[in-house]
Amino acid sequence: MFTLFGEAKNQDEVEQGAGHDYASLEESNLSLTLVGLISHPVRPVALIAQSGQVETYVPGEEIAPNVELIAVHGQFVVLDEKGQKRKLSLPFETTQRVKPSSREVPPLFEKNTPAHHDELSKMGHKIKKDPMTLNRFLRFKPTYNNGLVTGVKIWPREKAALFQALGLRAADEVIAVNGLSVSELFQAPQKWAKLLNHNRFDLTLRRTGRTHQVTFNLS
Predict the structure, then answer these.
(1) For residue 176, what are the domain limits?
(2) For burial by CB atoms within 10 Å, which of 29, 56, 126, 193 has the most?
(3) Of 9, 23, 40, 38, which is closest to residue 78 (Cα–Cα)?
(4) Which residues are 215's β-sheet partners?
């Protein structure tokens, strides 16, 4: 099984860590949604939504008052809630496959200079080396339809000029990556890992009611 960026641990490690049967933990009742996992040999990362905003966390970080992330596994994370361990699972069973539109979408043409290209390449290298870097560059907010994740809205943090040069705008909603819908990616996280083998990324975006295509290359 693969997670958002890389290969997850084997199933025994996923379900049990340091002798703990984490898979049998009670599910958390907090108003939190686990929207993604980033497997990393040193710093595994959880993408957790609360109050409509997605943030990235590593084990040991506080998510909310008296709530700490203590472990990241293949299908869930483990939380410490006032001394009680609870798990927060990926909601795969509540997602469905939504194919991106097959109609031709108008591309966005932006000036992307060699300096921007070099900066983009360095950014991609940093994110692969340390997934937490992603949170420095982008802010995320999942979008839902009838309780299902159908897209992810994005805003720039650092590198706002590069964000715009790529043809992106604040609050753009990403609905597909390289022909795979966001719904499909949430349903089958192993497909995220395959995307890492690509240098070219074709994003299908929804902006002010219209669909656009943005393409960039990390090589």
Answers:
(1) 114-217
(2) 56
(3) 23
(4) 202
In a shared domain, residues 50 and 137? no
Residues 52 and 126 in one domain: no
Residues 140/47, Cβ–Cβ less than 8 Å: yes
For 164-192, the pLDDT digits (tens) are 888 899 999 999 999 999 888 776 666 76
Looking at 82-122, which runs of residues are DSSP E strands?
A: 84-89
Q: Tell me the β-bridge partners of 25.
A: none
Q: Does the structure show a pLDDT above 60 at 67? A: yes
**Residue of 210, 195, 131, 207 whose CA lies nearest to 168:** 207
Please count the other Cβ atoms lying within 10 Å of the Cβ belonging to residue 154: 22
Write out the H or E segment, with its range, that includes residue 79: strand 76-81
Distance CA 217, CA 146 (A): 34
User: Which three-class secondary structure state does DSSP give residue 134?
Assistant: helix
Distance CA 118, CA 102 (A): 32
- Measure the CA angle with vertex 164, ends 163 and 169; round to 5°: 90
| 135 and 59 co-located in one domain | no
Q: Give the predicted TM-score (pTM) of the model.
A: 0.62
Say whether both 132 and 170 belong to one domain: yes
For residue 113 the two structure tokens come to: 């200079």
CB-hemisphere CA count at 13 Å for 32? 29
